[in-house]
Design a protein that fits this description.
Number of domains: 4
Helix content: 25-40%
CATH class of the largest domain: Mainly Beta
Distance between the termini: 12 Å
Oligomer: single chain
CATH topology of the largest domain: Elongation Factor Tu (Ef-tu), domain 3
Radius of gyration: 40 Å
Strand order of the largest sheet: 2-11-15-14-13-16
Number of helices: 5
CATH architecture of the largest domain: Beta Barrel
Largest sheet: 6 strands, antiparallel, barrel
Strand content: 35-45%
Shape: elongated
CATH superfamily of the largest domain: Efflux pump adaptor protein, beta barrel domain
Structural class: alpha+beta
Length: about 350
């Protein structure tokens, strides 16, 4: 602190009393009064925010994979562009699957013919058996052949259904609306159901903003809540505001929707996530933003202008007016609220704090 400002603060007794001591004969002229401004400390409820560095992520990211083996004959999307739910992404050569379907249908027709024949044979044999004109052995064999024929028909129908499914799987569509990623295969490539994924689709409306809170901050928050110094919104239902890299504030507020149940041992942080509507696609996965949690408040807190807080060898302090004297008082500043410091300790209601002078 400059010598000039020290002289001004020391002269506050003259300003506050509104008068000067009478000069004694032969004494030097007294220093003229210096104008200063003060405020009285008043405790109240003050909204506070918490700010973190966040990263934009797609709310859902899905790997697109093939369910059948075949050759890609067409890629129907542009990498990096928006695709709609149900939009075709890849087409696999359908000829082998059409042939397999025809074969399955032919097999089904043959089995249905065998079933019909077995059923007719049983129908002819049954009245003869009931008249004891046919043996039990012949009748039981006819019943068994009929049941076997029915089972073979059911199996053939299942093969037709599977062949139809495999044919459907040759047209690969997007299960969600989102941004497409890079394609790992080109047209003409042979792919299989157990191979690498074809591409990824990432939703961008809404988007998620992930950020991490340190263990020390979480413990501090809990301690201050227990001491009734901090109050969080009900159910921790924070609003979240984000600021982009160029300083632009994103127009829509997000909502905190997930807090990890555990800390990451390698970083000592807890992950939190907020969701934001993004209809204009302003936010893209991978962007860095500043995330500000809104909704908490300091209870019975005192705030003073930032310029009233000074830095000394013993830490942060202010000057108080006591008995018409300027007295140094150590304080513990917390968060900023507008242009003011929120003072966590060191001040009480009624303290007169020197702001300027």
């Amino acid at each position: 602190m400059s010598y000039y400002r020290w002289l001004m603060i020391m002269s506050i007794v003259t300003v506050l009393s509104g008068c000067q001591e009478l000069k004694k004969p032969g004494s030097p002229p007294a220093m003229p009064p210096v104008d200063v401004s003060t405020i009285s400390a008043v405790s109240k409820s003050i909204p506070v925010t918490f700010e973190f560095v966040g990263v934009v992520n797609g709310y859902h990211t899905i790997e697109i994979r093939s369910r059948v083996e075949g050759v890609i004959v067409k890629i129907s999307f542009t990498e990096g562009q928006l695709v709609k739910q149900g939009e075709t992404l890849y087409i696999i050569d359908q000829r082998p699957f059409l042939a397999a379907l025809d074969s399955a249908k032919a097999e089904l027709a043959g089995e249905e013919s065998h079933e019909w024949s077995a059923t007719r044979a049983l129908e002819r044999l049954k009245p003869i058996f009931e008249k004891n004109a046919a043996s039990r052995k012949d009748y039981d064999e006819a019943v068994a052949l009929g049941r076997t024929a029915k089972a073979r028909v059911a199996s053939a129908k299942a093969k037709v259904m599977q062949a139809e499914l495999n044919l459907d799987y040759t047209t690969i569509t997007s299960p969600i609306t989102g941004l497409s990623g890079e394609s790992n295969y080109g047209e003409g490539a042979l792919i299989s159901s157990g191979g690498k994924f074809l591409t990824k689709i990432t939703t961008i409306d809404p988007v998620a903003v992930n950020f991490h809170v340190s263990e020390s901050d979480v413990l501090k928050e809990r301690r201050e809540m227990q001491q009734h110094l901090l109050e969080l919104p009900p159910d921790r239902n924070f609003d979240v505001q984000i600021t982009l890299a160029d300083g632009t504030i994103f127009p829509a507020l997000g909502k905190l929707d997930f807090t990890a149940p555990t800390f990451r041992p390698e970083t000592g942080t807890m992950m939190m996530r907020a969701l934001f509507p993004n209809p204009d696609e302003v936010l893209r996965p991978g962007q860095f933003v500043r995330a500000k949690l809104i909704g908490a408040k300091r209870t019975n807190a005192i705030e003073i202008p930032q310029r009233a807080v000074l830095q000394g060898s013993k830490g942060m302090f202010v000057y108080l007016v006591k008995d018409n004297k300027a007295v140094e008082q150590i304080v513990e500043p917390g968060e900023w609220h507008d242009d003011n410091w929120i003072i966590l300790s060191g001040l009480k209601d009624g303290d007169v704090v020197i702001v300027d002078g």
